[in-house]
Specification:
With 393 residues, the chain is of the alpha/beta class. 40% of the residues lie in helices and 21% in strands. Strand 7 and strand 8 form a beta hairpin. Helix 3 crosses helix 4 (124-138). It starts with a strand and ends with a strand. The chain binds adenosine-5'-triphosphate and magnesium ion (MG).
Length: 393
């Protein structure tokens, strides 16, 4: 029955000049997600509204699912679009709509008319009253409730056409991709980092990713897991460029030269340094990690401070105050959880000390790192030069 959708988006912060940037980014992303969906779609902007109209047959369910992954959309309303052909034609369209949607259901309703076309010969209250009366007459199971109706029937009298809709399917909210630059996600095979990437992308930030691979300590399957996770994130964030950095030599060198209870922290400091170089080379404005206070020894507040000590770019840690349970809920929602819990080792589990420091002192860590001076710069350069780049769509 529906050939079109009215897209609702958040209005906050999108006034004035920014509004066009926001709307254009939203439309661009909508085109991108609808491209693989069966059907041909026309997307139009009109006075603070965005419409998706299908030309000919299309896959309704897939269309909704695709739009539900577009950040910035707060509601997707299947809508009947009609040209204005007078009140009687409108009334007939509304009755047809109600028959298709609500025949025989016991519910309450309210008619809510908005008149953008000030030349329409009836006022909004007049339309509400007349249409409401006709619905009551034609549908004995429906009753009126003006305060908390089950069905809010919207009739919008626009300048060029009329909208009839009552269903609002929730969108993901957030900000359209591309309205907030690009950031570099440190993506491991765990539960947290894909969720962190999703959350920052949701604020309109494009995502690139870096994975530190340590063959043969980490297997090809562990790497594939990260690729699969990046793919899941990309369904929301758009294409992700995944940088795979071979971290083995650096890890071994740290293992040989530094106190073992500081291994994890020093490794994490090198991950941050390398991620930062990559970020700077690729126009990323910040780093993103899945860190959360207290989750493991390397995420106590002193450990986070010691890791952060090497960062000059902002580091976004959207999960910092989340409990694991809440992170898992999001991981399930975005369909990364089942991949994340596959049991392949990651590079940190191979080299963890039995008793890692939980209160590292930055000064001491810096001193320990001096033992790396001879070769580390060369090794970092080598790791960056031999990176593998995967384009994830
Ligand atoms: P996750 O579930 O995201 O793996 P975690 O709880 O296992 O996180 P750590 O292993 O301490 O935590 O890692 C903390 C953060 O550091 C991760 O969320 C991720 O952003 C980054 N990170 C850890 N290991 C790697 C890796 N091999 N490659 C890229 N980033 C990594
Ligand atoms: Mg991990």
């Amino acid at each position: 029955m529906f050939q079109a959708f009215l897209i609702k988006y958040g209005e906050i912060g999108v006034k004035g000049k920014n509004r066009y940037v926001f709307e254009d980014a939203l439309v661009a992303r909508m085109k991108q997600v609808l491209y693989p969906v069966e059907g041909s779609f026309q997307i139009t902007k009109e006075q603070g509204r965005i419409y998706v109209e299908a030309e000919g047959p299309f896959d309704y369910e897939e269309t909704i699912l695709a739009l539900q992954r577009v950040f910035g959309i707060v509601g997707i309303c299947p809508v009947v679009l009609r040209e204005d052909q007078g009140f009687e034609a409108l009334s007939k369209d509304v009755m047809d709509y109600m028959h298709q949607m609500y025949d025989g259901v016991k519910k309450t309703f309210k008619v809510h008319t908005r008149r953008a076309n000030k030349h329409y010969p009836m006022t909004s209250p007049e339309v509400n009253e007349e249409i409401g009366g006709r619905i009551l007459e034609a549908f004995p199971d429906l009753t009126v409730d003006v305060h908390k109706p089950d069905i809010m029937l919207h009739i919008e009298l626009r300048s060029h056409h009329i909208n009839i809709y009552s269903e609002v399917i929730p969108g993901p909210g957030g900000m359209p991709l591309g309205t907030n630059g690009r950031s570099m996600l440190l993506l491991s095979g765990g539960i947290d980092s894909p969720v962190a990437g999703y959350m920052v992308a949701k604020r309109g930030v494009y995502i690139d990713a870096v994975y530190f691979h340590a063959p043969p300590y980490t297997s090809e399957r562990a790497k594939q897991k990260v690729v699969d996770l990046a793919q899941k994130v990309a369904r929301y964030s758009g294409p992700v460029r995944l940088h795979v950095i071979n971290f083995t030599d650096i890890q071994m060198y740290i293992y040989d030269q530094c106190p073992h209870d500081e291994l994890t922290i020093i490794m994490r400091r090198y991950m941050m340094r390398i991620a930062q170089k990559l970020a700077e080379d690729t126009g990323c404005l910040a780093l993103i990690t899945g860190e959360s206070i207290g989750q493991v020894a390397s995420q106590t507040v002193p450990s986070l401070a010691a890791t952060n000590d090497v960062c000059t770019l902002p580091v976004f840690r959207p999960l910092i105050a989340f409990d694991k349970e809440d992170i898992v809920t999001i991981a399930k929602k975005i369909d990364t959880y089942e991949i994340s819990i596959l049991p392949y080792e990651d590079c940190c589990t191979t080299f963890v000390a039995k008793h890692p420091v939980t209160k590292p002192q930055v000064e001491r860590i810096r001193k320990s790192e001096r033992a790396l001076e001879e070769k580390i710069e060369e090794m970092v350069r080598e790791a960056l030069e031999t990176e593998e780049i995967l384009e994830i769509r």
